# Entry
Amino acid sequence: MTPRVYIIILNWNGWKDTIECLESVFRNSYPNYKVVVVDNGSSDGSMEKIKAWAGGKEEDLTSEDSHQLCNPPLNKPIPYVYYSLEEAEKGGNPELEKRVITNQQASINYPLILIQSSSNLGFAAGNNLGIRYVLSKGHSDYIMLLNNDIIVRKDFLVKLLSFMEDHSTAGVAGPKIIDEKGEIDKNNLRRRLRLLDIIFIMGIGKALLPNNRWQKRHRYTDEYNFKYPKKIDIINGACMLFKTKVLKNIEIGRAHV
# Structure
């Protein structure tokens, strides 16, 4: 049986990015995944826009210049279930989720989960809300945190899972990220900061010597070409794939709202 993956996408006043992200994610070739969108108390009507996009009730809400990886638009409707923060904290409604997928016209056979927070919880607590919902289901093997401004390739999840399944000691992995210019984002991975790192990466040393050796060491410059997996200290939060058993050993805190 293929491992089950939950992909958590955090939105805050960014429904256009989130819809483009979803258009690419739902094209990925891995067969056993579900998507959770947590809205962090947006003030721009994000949740209503995402619902309208999923329901196919409005014209396509992706922009005309959307990336090729999220075009042409997916067939709609995409079934979804909407939860308040309180409902999500209790694990949602499994029976409702089963009923929603009986729509034979749907383009996927599982519902998109939409969770609405009443306020902006921040990056960590917003993702934690999604994680707690997933952990309450009790049947996930992996949990991915994915920024809403990321567009994914069709095989991205297949490749990440293949690596994780082949490396039993790996707890979290991240992909190579390409920026809008088509260049590798070398901030995607870093070493832990030491005293000299703080001075020359974040302090006055950065201004005086912008391309100093501490900068290069911190970002693995000149020693890693992104063509093979590498054990590192810090993975960019833009896309992280966790083994669920790792997160179960961490206390996933609640925000005070």
Q: What stands out?
A: The chain has a mean pLDDT of 86.
